[in-house]
Write a structure and sequence with these properties.
The protein has 141 residues and is an alpha+beta fold. The protein contains 1 helix and 9 strands, in the order αβββββββββ. Strands 1, 2, 3, 4, 5, 6, 7, 8 and 9 form a 9-stranded antiparallel β-sheet that branches.
């Protein structure tokens, strides 16, 4: 009888562990673990304190990047945070909250804040990103 108890206990433990791991991944109900985003606008803060289109960054219009919802890692484009000292997912997002991540470099400090409106009911989720004095906007799926 004892081996049956151990096998049953082990099975239940594995089921509980599986549920706990699934709940901690930060996935949405659809099981989404990342975003594919397209940049639709790039603006820069000018000296009077207003945003204006920036010709130097115009080549990023229409470019894509990917965001890992679990780690906050951004791959490709002007927001790539692979070399940043610290990358932190501040909010994993939900039907009520936006996904938010903060990346900070070391040395001469640069900060990147990305916000994806996870709560939007549409397939394409609007995003905004602030990196130094540039503001990037677009959509993520």
């Amino acid at each position: 009888m004892r081996p049956t108890f151990r096998r049953s206990y082990l099975s239940h433990s594995l089921v509980i562990l599986g549920i706990a791991l699934g709940a901690s991944t930060g996935e949405t109900a659809a099981g989404q673990t990342g975003y594919d985003c397209s940049i639709l606008s790039v603006q820069q803060l000018n000296s009077p304190g207003q945003l204006e289109a920036n010709g130097n960054q115009a080549f990023y219009l229409g470019t894509s990047f990917s965001v890992d919802r679990n780690s906050g890692r951004i791959i490709n484009g002007p927001l790539d945070n692979g070399l940043f000292k610290r990358v932190e997912v501040i909010d994993r997002g939900s039907k009520e909250q936006a996904f938010e991540l903060l990346s900070v470099t070391g040395g001469y400090v640069h900060a990147l804040l990305v916000r994806i409106e996870e709560y939007e009911a549409t397939r394409k989720k609007p995003f905004s990103a602030l990196y130094d004095d540039y503001v990037y906007t677009g959509n993520c799926e």
